[in-house]
Amino acid sequence: MLRVAVVGSGPSGCYTAQSLVQLDSGVCVDVLDRLPCPYGLVRYGVAPDHEKIKSLQNNLRTVLEHDRVRFLGGVQVGPGGVPAARLRGLYHAVVYCVGAATDRHLGIPGEDLPGSWSATQFVSWYSAHPDAVDGGFLRDARSAVVIGVGNVAVDVTRMLARGLAELSPTDMPQAALTALAASRVTEIHMVGRRGPSQARFTTKELRELGTLPGTDVVADPAELEPDPGYTDPSALPAPQRRNVEVVRGWAESPPADAPHRIHLRFFLRPVELLAEQGHVGAVRFERTAPDGRGGVTGTGRYEDIEAQLVLRSVGYLGVPMEGLPFDARTGTVPNLAGRVLREGVVTPGEYVAGWIKRGPTGVIGTNRPCAKETAMSLLGDAPLLASKNVPDDPLMALRAEGTDPVEWTGWQSIEQAEAELGASLGRGVVKLPDWQSLMTAAHGDVV
Length: 447
Ligand code: NAP
Fold this sequence. Notes:
alpha/beta, Rossmann fold, FAD/NAD(P)-binding domain, binds NADP nicotinamide-adenine-dinucleotide phosphate
């Protein structure tokens, strides 16, 4: 029997566990997570109003309920928890599926002013991540700037425009629901530094902005025209061409008089966040122009956009894991088809999958083939790995050393507590937003 630890229970961790047990009937997998709850970004990243994507949890659930898979929540690997070296001693192999845990920075003056947040902080708050802070994001805000034009930018823009009727059927925590429902933000500017044909959002997500009740989406044709892909989209790949067509539709529509406006802005790069009485009051952008090579150059012309709330949505970044090599430039662990490389040499027994392997790109389904490749590499090394001496049951060893994981039944108790909380509020399932209530529920006590 080959015992494998998968660190991280998001899509890449679950798909890795699935591939391992499907490809080899002699493998047992423990899926460890720092949180008492499984599913990673499917639980704490997918927007609450994206029911269909969230329902992927049901697929991941079947993996974690497999006979030869165990979920062990509330287990920190690394400083303050189980040292990585100890974990390697407990299992024949360890696969790190820890994602990209932080956000990229802009590196411009004023970035850390009050009122300026990473989109990740905002997403964590409305997704009830237990480490999230309630930053009073919407307090006194009338105008918001979202920097970046990827799918996360679209998510946060949409959440800012949604009203109570659309948000209350979601599982978002009550405090976030109350704050978003009371929001007075009417102008939301989503700003790209390049042109619409180079935006990273997908057409389905983009199009959804045009379906939001009480919301007008506006774009200025004059701002779009410098993009050669906008003026002549015929040579663009289909996904970009469709994006351009959607943006063109909005640019050509007469403005409506809706209570909320989403302004799609392009060819503006952020250069500074400007303060007003100690709080962000505007973002200064430099107008850019295409450089003919897919990038942009500055034009020396500037524009300030008013914003009491700034959400920086410029991508995620992997963080180093104790005991693992790390490429700071890409935010990934150097690897060969999932096998960890130390100074260019494969280290059997250590693997990576998901964003920490390939960087923060792709949709959830992209993790399937990525995880399968890693699982195949690991199973290719199985004859070598199987000769290692490991304890019969790593869980007993972990317990003996003072780690008390939240097992599957503990997670089921959390799910039950969330259903009960929702019922008490006259809503569906409502997520528990803090460590204390999660751990209390996991241990079966009344919340
Ligand atoms: P992303 O797709 O990489 O988009 C990042 C955006 O930030 C780009 O528009 C990028 O512009 C811009 N940017 C980067 N550095 C910048 C800077 N210094 N100044 C101004 N703009 C800057 O990242 P993401 O939106 O965080 O998404 C991460 C992944 O999750 C993606 O694969 C995404 O599709 C996926 N996701 C999917 C869904 C969904 O399917 N519904 C939802 C959320 C996330 P440039 O292109 O010019 O660099």
